[in-house]
Please model this.
Amino acid sequence: MSIAAHLPALQVVLPLISAPLAVLLRRRDLAFWMVTAAAWAAFATAIQLWLQVGASGTISYHIGSWPPPWGIEYRVDRLSSFVLLLVSGMAAVMLPYARTSIEREIPEESHYLFYAMFGLCLAGLLGITITGDAFNIFVFLEISSLATYVLIALGRDRRALTAAYQYLIMGSIGATFIVIGIGFLYLTTGTLNLADMAGRLRGVESSRPVLAALAFLTVGISLKLALFPLHQWLPNAYTYAPSPVTAFLAATATKVSVYVLIRFYFSVFGESLVYEHLPLPQIMLGLSLLAMFGASFIAIFQDNLKRLFAYSSVGQIGYISLGLSFDSVHGLTASIVHLFNHGIAKGAIFLLIGGIAVGIATPGAVAPAPTFDRLAGLAKRMPLTCFGIVLGGLSLIGVPGTAGFISKWYLILAALEQGQFWLVGAILLSSLLAVAYVWRFVEVAYFRAPPAGHVARKEAPLAMLIPAWLLIAATIWFGLDTSVTVDTALDAARQLMGKAQ
Model:
């Protein structure tokens, strides 16, 4: 049998193997090359799987040749192949950046551990996305979460340890809710295979154990994706984690959690139970609006640039969950597209902020926090970095020509489709809050004089600028050419809602 037949397994196995090898070797250069090679191989595998699914339909891979539901199944459809592209692509871009960045942000003796945990986190996120088994979702979720706690705690700032501990507590609560929900589903159906579970739930989906499972899974996954007001772990985790960790988490971790929520809602419980028999859409709508306005408003008043964009992430998650509140193809398409587009834009912004931390640091010193009092006049010293942040900010606002505009356009289409014109106004008004917090950076970096005694450094190293600008270029590209993002998201939405054309 050719290696192409085993691509679903290789998608997870390659980064999973690279992690323990990096620990055993305990040499940072070898660890870097090993994990980076695994990430790029995973990205190439994801591209091939995306092409195969587009050409031939859903791929079902049986682990150990045991057919489901008795054996574990890896299942790749349009949605999961799209998320695999995002996760593996972000890892492939960010690892070369990390090699330079962590020199200032992580003690040298911990560099090999950083790469090992990065590979483990990547394997967990890819496993969550590709598995067709409910319990394996929980297992991979814990693998990625445990690695993430370590990655956050590796930061030199002592508050990173507190942030990691806070995330551990909140994440453990979320994981407990998730495993209880899966337990109720197993109690009802006698299977852990998602496709088999969905078939066995038909006719009993309104029973109390199923409703309890839906409630536990919704709350648990909402904690993981930082849905307002369950977002309390996110601002500190993003602010105090090392820059490549912040960028990777912002681009992938919450997005994979959104994927899990979509998967359970549409592939397991079914559209009818979620949208017709329970008030979940109304609850999701209310929480989404709170995130879009509340978190974005809080972002305006932050003095640390990383913390500002951390709260921005909570607000942007609100747009994703808003799309889920619509019972429509356009609404679900908007959620899936924004999952991808926001991941790219926010990943680029946090990589550039990491470049700022290095750029404003005294040579040989630890990179300082990018507070606004240190950013005055920064555009004259770091024009490429500042312009990149502005372009990424334009995508968050939803300016035409950027990827963010495409997401908001489909949200507006979904609102108009259901005659909810007031929601169109809410989407536009909340975007003005994004204008306000992006303008704070523009005003400080472009229109204020540099502080006295500032370090006259030009730009971050090319090893940090190039990966960040690749993502900025992707943000512009996917705002102009939607043949990959929108077409894939639309196909996935139709498939999930049983309206494939």
Summary: Strands lie at 59-62, 73-76. The chain is about 75% helix and 0% strand. The chain has a mean pLDDT of 86.
